[in-house]
Amino acid sequence: MYRTIRSTAYEPDPLNGPWQEESHVLRLGEDLHTELTRMHAEAGGDRARPDRLPVRQLNFLLQALAPGVIATGRRAGTDGSLPWLYARETVPPDVLAPLIGTWAAR
């Protein structure tokens, strides 16, 4: 069907200025980090790293099911003050709460 692959690129028009998008940053927060860490430890979590939350699966879940989430921060599971979610718009708590609850219950 296609015998040739051609690369393409998008180049913004310099006459219209730089391409900028505002993103909203959400941090896990110390209180939520502490509570989730406690729950994880009680469930028999990683004993070698009791201070670290295994948020990789939660990050995948949020990117798939929370509208507007475009990226997740690195090492957010180790420190509640680090940037965690980057989104095009504010992610409502009523969207985040059930997803975090589902992840925490597993």
TrEMBL record:
Instruction: Show the InterPro entries listed in the entry.
Output: pPIWI_RE_X (IPR025085)
Enumerate the spans annotated as pPIWI-RE module N-terminal domain: 9-105
Can you name this protein?
A: DUF3962 domain-containing protein
